[in-house]
Amino acid sequence: MVRQVVLDTETTGLETSQDHRIIEIGCVEVVNRRLTGRHYHQYINPEREIDQGAMEVHGITNEYLADKPVFASVADEFLEFVKGAELVIHNAPFDVGFIDHEFGKLDDYTPVANHCGIIDTLVMARQRHPGQKNNLDALCKRYGVDNSQRDLHGALLDAEILADVYLLMTGGQVDLILGSHGSQRDGQVQSDIRRLSSDRAPLKILRANQEELDLHKEKLNQIDKVSEGGCVWLSSEEQ
Fold it and tell me: Considering 43, 121, 147, 196, which has the largest number of Cβ atoms within 10 A of its Cβ?
């Protein structure tokens, strides 16, 4: 089993050297390349003021965080969620640096890399698309991920969006599971594959009409444009 946690944070500012702090953590779980629906989300009282520039990015105010827990009180819960997983983060040094900064203020905590593997999707995107914009909005446009609700940055929403981008960037499938994973009922794993009788009637073949063929070709052209000429199906049709 490959367990990954897609993670994002929001902070009071940009520099841990100025003792800026985490104010929001958002995580979504991916197991064997499938979103499981499990997530971790927490707003945090940073015990300091938020920079105006940062507030304009994420929209989180000092007043909103006044009654939220401090990091020390949620550190165990957060670490329990991510421990042993491969963290998927866009611009990982930023988020990891802030998490380690928070852990460094507490006793008996070590850097997050001691507990998790780390994948930086910004590095990955730059390798795949050199010379192009590779921020999260640009990647959403490139891979056809809906980010219409992203007026402001939010850790959980950005983690959910990044999970879709990462799965598309690294394989193309987001929700489809291939193979006989089966389902669990009453503690027993049962196959979800329904076997058909060998003496069944032959399946009826329905051929696409011209309108459907034209719509199919239009969709392939859209995919080819988004993938910048990477639609293999379309190129094979033209040969």
Answer: 121
Count of CB atoms within 10 A of residue 144's CB?
A: 13
**Residue 31 to residues 59, 126, 157, Cα–Cα distance (Å):** 31, 25, 19
Domain boundary among 119, 143, 170: 170
Roughly what angle, to the nearest 10 degrees, separates helices 155-170 and 136-143?
50
153 noted as active-site residue: yes
pLDDT in tens, 88-144: 999 999 999 999 999 999 999 999 999 999 999 999 999 999 999 999 999 999 999
139: how many CB neighbours lie within 10 A of its CB?
27
For residue 98, the enclosing domain spans 3-170
Question: Do 149 and 232 belong together in one domain?
Answer: no
The tokens for 111 are 């850097």
Residue 42: CB partners within 8 Å, gap ≥ 6?
Answer: 24, 25, 69, 74, 77, 78
Burial-class residue 163 by CB neighbours within 10 Å (0-12, 13-18, 19+): buried
- Among the options 39, 41, 115, 153, which is catalytic? 153
